[in-house]
Each structure stands twice: as structure tokens, then as C-alpha cells.
Write a structure and sequence with these properties.
The chain is of the alpha/beta class. Helices cover 31% and strands 23% of the residues. It has three domains: 82 residues, Udp-n-acetylmuramoylalanyl-d-glutamate--2,6- Diaminopimelate Ligase, Chain: A, domain 1, CATH 3.40.1390.10; 222 residues, UDP-N-acetylmuramoyl-L-alanine:D-glutamate ligase; 152 residues, Protein-Tyrosine Phosphatase, Chain A (Alpha-Beta Complex). Strand 20, helix 13 and strand 21 form a beta-alpha-beta unit.
Length: 485
């Protein structure tokens, strides 16, 4: 594609050099820049791409997009000065790949908890409805029925446009994608035309990055502020910040709730280990999910499907047959009658929700034993809150490692222990080794007891000192439960 053609679709401040050049690729990593590639110098969280402009040129690129022109201008190089390289990367990628979002109906799901479940369940539903569908989620990127492991909740702008183009090429009509607060703040969703957006909730998370809760909210709200007038914006009004998300959006405003008045409502009628009975939009349906938080997720799925033109009588039977997402309230039962629940809950609110769901279905004749840790190199302020929620909702708690990353796991556990009030200390034990922690939980549990292993869910690794070691909570539980695959 000619540079002169691509440049028509972005806002630029100044051009130095010829536009009559072919663009065969777009890169933001100078090491990948080659002849006929355009290099975009981005200002990242830890690295400034402007420092690597000359490296990109040395590797063969002759087109540079940047916010500041270098002191020395090289001959035969085209420099295009822009206001925001992060936005321009998305716009360039969209133009380069033929504006794939214009050819798809794309719904973004944002919030602290529930993003993966809602996006994945919408993907599963639309496949069952007969549509070719795409998914960008924390667990995987899917193009119809082909799958690629995910590297980020929301990929970089270049990867997103590439995946959307592949979806278009595969004949997909819909795409459901998680939109993280990092992605909004870093402009990774620039160049995407969304059909709609869904807000789940917002609770304590990612303050290591956003620094304040107000900035975290601002990032989430920024997604809805950017939706066009022809889109829809669906929000959970049970969250105290739900309506705030819609304050400045041009999109059609739609609400859902499991507790109060809203456009779409749902109520849990019965809750059991194998599912729950819901009154969903004045219709009773049985689902395979457990807990009020899952009722809210299913209501979001239902509301979104209706906004995308689907028929109520077709989607309700499908909701009854949808299965929980991998690593989200997955239930295992031992040969001697013990239960284990594997869940990705890694925020205080998510842990509270899962323990609340267990409380709704337990008989009080059994113990709830929770195994939980907290990730390293992440928001430290939530660690004592995680422990506090665990002890308040459990009979016994084992504090352990999650993904310690570059931190000392013993210090992470110590940070968690600070959240355990004196009256709860006798129910808490700390076991640094996650394998031993899960093993201990399975050994002290009696028939009928419920073990919650929280924090990692679908993940099959532990990140320790920059190395990912194979570790799967479900595999460990199955070993001690005597369950064969």
C-alpha cells in the first residue's frame, strides 16, 4: 500500500520526505523494522520508542512516525510528526488492514470482573446461533473455531487490527473483545469502530498502574466516551459507578440489574451446585451457572444479544445450555465426596462474589476451605483486602503463592496476613508452596467440604523470577481427589 494512501486516514502535524513509498508492514519494535516497513515511535510505560528511531533506520525502514523529530534528519527517510503515536499506530494499522472493524459488529466488554465470562459466553452463543464469530479475551484469541493463546487481555493495536482482518477474511460477522483499562489508557483500541460496549463493574484493581481509583474509573469511562452515536452502551446499574460510565457517551444507553429497576432484569430463584434457576426478563430458565455474579453476567449476555438483533425465544434456550468459562467457578468432586472450586478471582470483590455464591448453596454442615494468594509486581494495596475477604467467607484459609513474579513470595504472603483481624488468625495458615497448599487443603477436607482455590483459574503456569513454570490448579486437585482425565 502506498504511504500517500495510508496518510489520508491519520492526523499529522508535519511531513518531511517523500510519500511515494510502498508500505509492506507497520512496526513499533525497531528490531522488527525492515525495508518497506513504517516504524512508529511510541512512548510506552517504561520505554520511549523515539530512542530507537535510528536503530529502526539502520534495520532498513525509511518511514518514521514520531511525536518529536530527531535532531539529525537522515536523507531518503520520510518523517511524519504526529500528536500521539499511540493513537496513530491504531489508525495506521486499521488503514493498512483495510478497516476491518467497519466490516464486523464489534462489542467491547470492560470492567474489573466478568469481562472474560461475558465475552466468551457471547462468542459461544453466536456460534450456536449459526454465525461465524471472533473472540479476543484473556484466555485466547479465536477466529471462528481456530484458537490462539492470548498474550494480553487486550492485544496491542497492531495485533488487534491483524486479528480483526483475519476474522473478516474467515467470514466472521461478529467479534466480542475484552477491553482492559490499560488498553484504553494506552490507546490500543484506536482505529476500532465499536458497535457496542458493556460495563460489568469496577472494584479495587490495577492501582499499581493507574495510581488512584479515580484514574482507574476514568480509563474505563474513556471507552464509553469514545463510542459513536450509532452504538449501544450497556451498563450494570448495581455497580455504584455504572451510570457514571454513561454520562458522556453518545451511544444508546441501556441498563441491566439483578437488584433494582433497569431496562433488563434478572432474579435468582434457586441456587445449587449444579446450576441455578433464574427469572430472566420475566421468563424462568435453568442455567449451569452458580451465584448472583454469574446471573449478572448472563443478563449482560442476554441484553447484548438483543441489541445485536437476536430473537428472545432463540437466545433463552441457548443461555440454558451455555457452560461456565474455563477457570471460572469450575467444580470438581472427589471420589469420597469432597468438592473443589477453581476460580480466577484475583481481586477482593471477585473473591467476595465467589465466596458469596458458595454461601448461597452450602448447608452449613460443611467447611469452606479457601486457598488464595496475590500476584507479585501488581497492586499491593489489595493484598490485605484479599485475605480479609477470604477469612470472612471461609472456615479455614491457606495463604499461598500466586504468580510472585520478581517479588519474594514470603513478603507477599506477609502483606496478605496484615489483613487478617485478630479474631480470625486461628483459622489461617500460610504455606508458600502452592502445590503443598492445595495438597494440604485436600487432606484436611472431609466428605462434603468445599475447597476454593482462587486466583489463577485457567492459567497453567506460575511466574517466578521471570520464568513461567508449568502449574495447573485443576491438575493438582485432580491428583489428590483421585480424578482421572
Amino acid at each position: 500500500m502506498k504511504l500517500s494512501e495510508i496518510i489520508r486516514h491519520i492526523n499529522f502535524l508535519k511531513i518531511s520526505g517523500s510519500l511515494e513509498k510502498e508500505v509492506a508492514a507497520i512496526e513499533f519494535d525497531s528490531r522488527k523494522a525492515v525495508a518497506n516497513s513504517a516504524f512508529v515511535a511510541q512512548r510506552g510505560v517504561t520505554v520511549d520508542g523515539h530512542k530507537y528511531i535510528q536503530s529502526a533506520i539502520n534495520n532498513g525502514t525509511s518511514i518514521v512516525f514520531c511525536e518529536e523529530l530527531p535532531n539529525e534528519i537522515s536523507e531518503n527517510i520520510t518523517y511524519i510528526k504526529v500528536a500521539d503515536s499511540n493513537v496513530v499506530l491504531g489508525e495506521l494499522a486499521a488503514a493498512f488492514y483495510g478497516f476491518p472493524s467497519k466490516k464486523l459488529k464489534i462489542v467491547g466488554i470492560t470492567g474489573t470482573n466478568g469481562k472474560t465470562s461475558i465475552a466468551t459466553l457471547l462468542y459461544d452463543m453466536f456460534l450456536k446461533l449459526g454465525y461465524k464469530t471472533g473472540l479476543l479475551s484473556t484466555i485466547s484469541y479465536r477466529i471462528n473455531k481456530t484458537e490462539e493463546s492470548a498474550s494480553h487481555t487486550t492485544p496491542n493495536a497492531l495485533k488487534i487490527q491483524q486479528l480483526l482482518a483475519e476474522m473478516v477474511g474467515a467470514g466472521c460477522e461478529f467479534c466480542f473483545m475484552e477491553v482492559s483499562s490499560h488498553a484504553v489508557h494506552q490507546k490500543r483500541i484506536a482505529g476500532i469502530e465499536f458497535t457496542g460496549g458493556v460495563f460489568t463493574n469496577i472494584t479495587h484493581d490495577h492501582l499499581d498502574y493507574h495510581k488512584t481509583f479515580a484514574e482507574y474509573i476514568k480509563a474505563k469511562k474513556g471507552f464509553f466516551d469514545g463510542l459513536p452515536s450509532g452504538a449501544f452502551a450497556i451498563t450494570n446499574v448495581d455497580d455504584k459507578n455504572g451510570l457514571m460510565m454513561l454520562q458522556n457517551t453518545k451511544a444508546q444507553k441501556i441498563t441491566y440489574s439483578t437488584h433494582s429497576m433497569a431496562d433488563f432484569r434478572c432474579k435468582v430463584l434457586e441456587n445449587h451446585f449444579d446450576g441455578m434457576l433464574l427469572n430472566l426478563d420475566d421468563r424462568e430458565i435453568w442455567t449451569r451457572f452458580v451465584g448472583n455474579f454469574n446471573a449478572a453476567n448472563l443478563l449482560a449476555v442476554y441484553s447484548t444479544a438483543l441489541q445485536l438483533g437476536q430473537n428472545k425465544d432463540e437466545i433463552l434456550p441457548i443461555i440454558s445450555n451455555l457452560k461456565p468459562v474455563k477457570g471460572r467457578f469450575e467444580i470438581l468432586q472427589s471420589v469420597d465426596g469432597k468438592f473443589a472450586i477453581v476460580d480466577y478471582a484475583h481481586t477482593p470483590d471477585a473473591l467476595k462474589n465467589v465466596l458469596g455464591a458458595i454461601a448461597e448453596i452450602r448447608t452449613r454442615n460443611e467447611q469452606v476451605i479457601t486457598v488464595v494468594g496475590a500476584g507479585g509486581d501488581r497492586d499491593k494495596t489489595k493484598r490485605p483486602e484479599m485475605a480479609m475477604e477470604a477469612v470472612q467467607g471461609s472456615d479455614k484459609v491457606i495463604l499461598t503463592s500466586d504468580n510472585p513474579r520478581t517479588e519474594d513470595p514470603a513478603q507477599i504472603i506477609k502483606d496478605m496476613e496484615a489483613g487478617v483481624a485478630r479474631q480470625f488468625k486461628n483459622k489461617v495458615v500460610s504455606i508458600e508452596n502452592r502445590f503443598e497448599a492445595i495438597k494440604t487443603a485436600t487432606l484436611i477436607a472431609r466428605s462434603g467440604d468445599i475447597i476454593l482455590v482462587a486466583g489463577k483459574g485457567h492459567e497453567n503456569y506460575q511466574d517466578i523470577k521471570g520464568v513461567k513454570h508449568h502449574f495447573d490448579d485443576k491438575e493438582v486437585i485432580k491428583e489428590f481427589f483421585g480424578i482421572e482425565d
